[in-house]
Amino acid sequence: MIKKFIWGAILSLPIIMYSCYPKGAETVSDTNLVFTAYDDEFDFATDRSYYLYDTVIYIDSSATRSATIDNAIKNSIISNFNSLGYTRKMSIDDPNEVNIVVMAALIKNSIQGISYYPGYGGWYGGYWGGWGYGGYYPGYYPIPYSYDIGTVFIDAFDSQNLDPGDAILPPIVWSAAMNGLLSSSTLSNTSRIQTVINQAFAQSPYL
Amino acid sequence: MKKLIFTTLLFLSSFGLMAQDGIFAMTYNMALPTGSMADYNSNYSWRGFGFEGRAFVTDNITLGGSFSWNVFFKEEINKSYVSDNVTVTGNFYKYINAFPINFTAHYYFSDYDAPVRFHAGLGVGTSKINQETDFGVWAITHDYWHFNVSPDIGILMPMNYKTNLFISMRYNYAFKNKDMDYGYFGFNVGLAWY
């Protein structure tokens, strides 16, 4: 009796442990990641003026543009710079008119793959009369999966070193990259874009 | 993973050999990280279990084996990590799964029929450590075997002629392999049968 109880407990404990296993990210918002870096020798404070490049760059040129997403990105950048006391120049003839030039870009990566649910393989019977071998069916059941990852980039360039005729970009003095799983809802993705851009500015007090 | 399953099955299959001359114990295990393990994740672990089998080679000495599993988990919501001029913010989910598998030797300071049978011992073996940090859509993993030692003390309190309340405290130390060592105190409560 005790032996049966012991073996029953041994076999059931892993199941109990699995059901109690702590869960990680449960919503797409839990996968938001914000990365920022800056040039600590650049002077952001003296001249708080900027020009925002009007077009959000789609790194994958074949991607379908979304005016909703583009406006969410630009409006979030503008509102954050405004709250920091920056002055936006709507157009510039000479890069020296502003301290930094800001550009935004985004990319969507689609990840596809196949995972396998373990099962039992086996052999099916040979030919009539016992000649030859039968076939083998695999013990794993393929489960295809796909998901999209979105990344928004914001780069601020040292405008004083910007030469419009020069193919080489000037030094980046502030860079933000915001990354996460995309949902199927544009409304959700738009809201998350605003959240992560706000966070990028919040963790950049030197701006 | 295959090595872990094989070693566990080999260990569990030895139980049938013990008959009446040994102890089998099953415990609920809690744990508290120490040292560099606590620097990574200091949270107390409430998730764990363990099995032990011991055979008496003399009236007061047993040799045997033990297997246990503890899960250490910590979530850091909207946490920022700063290094020089770089900042990363997000949700970080930190997991450590520790599987110490030991050969053990114990000395009992009182006889079989004592109301409290105090014992002390040492386990030596290996520990599989699966460590994973999930952030965003990324993960950093550490999945290695470590040399392991586990000194412990405990008591057996008879409930009837065969069943005992079993309480022990153990320090599991997995020596450094690759980049990190892992040490934690284990607090185990369960039942043991002669």
Detail the topology: elements first, then pairings.
The complex is a heterodimer of chains A (207) and B (194).
Chain A: H1 2-19, E1 33-38, E2 49-52, E3 57-58, H2 67-83, E4 87-89, E5 100-118, E6 122-123, E7 136-137, E8 140-158, E9 172-181, H3 186-202
Parallel strand pairs in A: 2-4, 2-5, 3-5
Antiparallel strand pairs in A: 1-9, 5-8, 6-7, 8-9
Helix pairs in contact in A: 2-3
Chain B: H1 2-13, E1 22-34, H2 35-40, E2 47-56, E3 61-83, E4 86-108, E5 117-135, E6 138-158, E7 163-177, E8 180-193
Antiparallel strand pairs in B: 1-2, 1-8, 2-3, 3-4, 4-5, 5-6, 6-7, 7-8
What can you see in these coordinates?
The complex is a heterodimer of chains A (207) and B (194). With 207 residues, chain A is an alpha/beta fold. Helix content of chain A is 25%, strand content 32%. Chain A has helices spanning 2-19, 67-83, 186-202, and strands at residues 33-38, 49-52, 57-58, 87-89, 100-118, 122-123, 136-137, 140-158, 172-181. The longest helix of chain A is centred in the N-terminal third of the chain and has 18 residues, at 2-19. The radius of gyration of chain A is 27 Å and the shape is elongated. Chain A starts with a helix and ends in a 5-residue tail after the last helix. Residues 119-135 of chain A have low confidence and may be disordered. Chain B is mainly beta and 194 residues long. Chain B is elongated, with a radius of gyration of 19 Å. The two termini of chain B are 32 Å apart. Residues 16-20 of chain B have low confidence and may be disordered. Chains A and B meet through helix 1, strand 1 and strand 9 of A and strand 2, strand 3 and strand 4 of B. Strand 1 (33-38) of chain A pairs antiparallel with strand 4 of chain B, so a sheet runs across the interface.
**Regions with little confidence, pLDDT below 50 for 5+ residues of chain A:** 119-135
Sequence of strands across the biggest β-sheet of chain B? 1-2-3-4-5-6-7-8
Q: What would the average pLDDT of chain A be, to the nearest integer? A: 82
From the alpha carbons, calculate the radius of gyration of chain A and give it in angstroms: 27 Å
Strand residue percentage of chain B? over 45%
Tell me the total number of β-strands of chain A.
Answer: 9
Query: Which percent range fits the helix content of chain B?
Result: under 10%
Put simply, the count of helices of chain A is 3
Which spans of chain B of ≥5 residues are poorly predicted at pLDDT below 50?
A: 16-20
Radius of gyration of chain B: 19 Å
- Counting DSSP E segments of at least 2 residues, the number of strands of chain B comes to 8
What's the main sheet of chain B like? 8 strands, antiparallel, barrel
Strand content of chain A: 25-35%
- Overall shape of chain A: elongated
Overall 3D form of chain B: elongated
**What is the CA–CA distance across the termini of chain B?**
32 Å
How does the helix and strand content of chain A classify structurally? alpha/beta
* N-to-C order of helices and strands of chain B: HEHEEEEEEE
Straight-line distance between termini of chain A: 72 Å
